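ARCHIVE RECORD
Type: protein–small molecule complex
Small molecule: iron/sulfur cluster
Source of inputs: curated submission
Record status: active
Notes field left blank by submitter.
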Amino acid sequence: MNLAEIKETIYRADKSLTESLAQEAKTITEQYFGRTISLYAPLYLSNYCSSHCIYCGFSSHNKIKRSKLSGEEIHREMKAIAATGIEDILLLTGESYEATSLEYLKNAATIAKEYFSCVLLEVHPMETNEYQELFSIGADGVTIYQETYDRNRYKEVHLAGKKSDYDFRLGTPERAAKAGMRYISLGILLGLSDAASDLFELFNHLNYLEKNFPGIEYNLSFPRLRNIKGREFAKCDVDDETFVKIISLARINFPRVGITLSTREKPSLRDHLLGIGITRISAGSNTSVGGYEISKDSAQDPQFDIEDKRSVQEIIKSLKNNNFDPVFTSWRTIKNTI
Ligand code: SF4
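STRUCTURE (tokenized, with ligand):
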């Protein structure tokens, strides 16, 4: 699809168009994924960050309590998550190359492999050789969102720190692919810039990666801007109907690609989108450092507010009631017992 077609589809107020796109997306999703929905949990290892992104609760300019999990605390948090049945973990940090160094991340990934079969990283962008080191100790993939492909807007909202380097971030999926990562997730933060233009550029980016690095499992995600610490950064101008069209277009253009939906969205919308194109959801999420076990009873400073606060068990029940099959891992390493 060219940019004009995407704009025409996304911005035309026409409920029948939305319904027909959703129906087409639903048929394709069932054809390629059946009724399966993969579950994962995010684990925030640290909220130290040396970048200043004006939409994020972890920004270096926000006065929040900073912490990072020790090795023993990582074990405790992971044990609590694994006890819910989740087998895929996404390890997240703020972007501090000092607080969460490569060595720290390697240790966290090594511990994660004791509890989970699939370990994904949403951490600061790295060089190829660093991704290789993480891959060699068991990390399976990388999540890296460009947030917006509009260079001017990118500059306006990423004021300081490594994240303000647009090109280094843009080249990250390619470096991760060269390092051998088997899973790469891309995304845009809806509400930051013109959604249609960002969607067009995201599709181009994914087309480029699929052509040059085939065989990798690619995934897309479309988080919408959320309040941070109860404060609204900017109203997200992507309403629910436009959001449905964005998910549908992603599915129609990339039939085999996984699409993730986070707990930023309300339970009712999450449930509705499952039938349309979503194949992967977070469950029982907590977006604070130590929020599952270590500091579950204390006041927390999450990266953003979440809407779907259902437990893993409640989500499993809801999926089954709606005739979906929850899948607890997308990857299992073969253990050679001979
Ligand atoms: S978006 Fe990432 S890099 Fe930017 S302030 Fe938040 S945690 Fe730091």
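CURATOR ANNOTATION: The chain has a mean pLDDT of 91.
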